[in-house]
Here is the input.
Amino acid sequence: MGVVTMAMAGLGAALDRQRGHLFPWAPVALGLGIGLYFVPRSEPGHWVFLTIGLIGAAGAALALRRPGGGAALGWAAALVAAGSGLAAARAHWNAAPVLTARYYGPVEGRVVAMDRSASDALRLTLDRVRLDGVPPGRTPARVRIALHGHAEGLAEGQGVPPGARVMTTGHLAPPQGPAEPGGFDFRRHAWFQRLGAVGYTRAPVLVAAPPGRALRLFRLRMAVAARVRAALPGDIGGFAAAVTTGDRSGVGQPVLEALRASNLAHLLAISGLHMGLLAGFVFGAVRLALAAVPALALRLPARKIAAGAAILAAAGYFALSGGNVATERAFVMTSVVLGAILVDRRAFSLRAVALAALIVLSLRPEALLGPGFQMSFAATTALIAVFGNLRDWRIGLGPRWLQPVAGVALSSLVAGLATAPVAAAHFNTLAHYGLAANLLAVPVMGLVVIPAAVLAALLTAVGLEGIGLEAMGWGLRWILAVAHWAESLPGARGHVPSPGPWVLPLFALGMLVLILWQGRARLAGAAPVAAAFLLWAGVERPAVLIADDGALVGVMTAEGRALSKPRGAGFVAGIWLENDGDGADQAAAAARWPGAEGRLRIVRTGPHRIVHVTGKRALAALTTCSAQDVVVAPLPLSLDGPCLVLDLPHLRQTGAIAFDAAGKLRAARDRRHRRLWSGPDRETDRGTKRGRRQ
Here is the structure.
């Protein structure tokens, strides 16, 4: 007890010396609590939250009674408890029915969103859903359906009215779990979007009822996007619509790939850059206009009026863009910065970033797990820290005429270095020419594209928006040219394996200590950063991966992951190869397979012999098995022998499966451990009565 008491006293004294610099740690404590909610494999019980609540209340009471370092520890405990409570409340608040079986039949609902899938297919998100034979209490709140073949052609040719009630005949299934144990869980992502089913259709999409009075902003957004695409056809129009309204349904997959390979994809999403550029342009324009009239400049607080106008412009942009998570985060950050001007506080400070993070995490706790939140606040925190130190240390950026260029270059470098590890961890790629591409493209976005978009909006009232859109098109053509140029360079994109679960938390902790802690002790943050990179460098990928439907098997070889099939299950194959840090495609990975025996795909690895039964014809060649065999099949099996059978019914219970080099099995889903979003124990291929008849 004496050692613990001394340690607590020392920590309290250290925190007391940080007085005045502790507020930026508040979102860190809140985020820690949110993260703790998502860690367990089982949903925490009521007694867990009761205990956490008591700890939080005790921490708050301690903070109120004991000033100094003790108060900081108390508030930290209270914020951790609040974070766990917020995450749990959000998860339960978003509870909605999830489809429990595969469904084929009529699908009817109201169009509330449009986008494009990874395969470049138009997708519709529907609410107020009706499925034939599915009771209302078990019908998903939202479904997302991709339009393929004839269906997409009709939808794009005739136009699906936003907000209209539509109907089609489609295939639906519950949201899929991780492609491998420990991987990205789409079911969790879908849970917080209240998305209870996903699927596709090849049938025509018919309008059952025209749009009503609801969803006016969505209909306005899609109307503006259509008008932009009409004025600027092709990829430029799709890019312009995405920048102005957030509608990315007109952006093709080749453009997306070029932007990703050049690290310019952030220009496509309405994020902090766009919101900041827009608000900055409006702020500067209004302030300049007021300064041009001496009578007004001498009598009015021009700076505050400009800040208010910029907030209104940002709010309009936020509403028009659909208000997704990234845009919401950008609007909160921009509003906090401009609000600081209104109350005569320093606009760009770590306190402003911390306040924005607290607001975002309070509204959407699940955003903590997404790359958007992590990259946005990593870049913002690093930029403010670097430029703040340059200001405090009075370090200039060269002659006055060079300072704008040097500022852009330094900003791109700092933001790129801060976000590169996060982006690589989530997307398994590194854009080697991203810095050069951003230096060539970002200034054009700020000096041409955003001002032209504002000009187009102002001229819309008199029908002359084409002038602004044409100027906007010039800037976007340059940006796309830069993206394609960077993509075409040799070695433009590097590949890295997915890190272990502790890598990003350690990296974040170390960087936060380096930036937020005051004094020489901040150098201790270098240790967690170094540990994170060492863990990442030593990461071991699974020796064997098995898809959750038994359609694909991947075995690690000296040449990389060998896949059992050159076609089929392409989505899962792509995720496996990306997580391996492997740039090969599925066909190339399938060519690595060591060999086959008849129609069976067989390979020996570690203590096991993996036997993949690819279909019914292959099944005829397999009647028995031995103890070392692991038999995988996308259909039910009945075999004689002591082997481990991972057939379709078994895999529906366990989800995707991985074996390590020692042959230890790990499943994505454990029947003993369940979260709210884990999905049903058993999924069947039987649809509703109407679905079976069809």
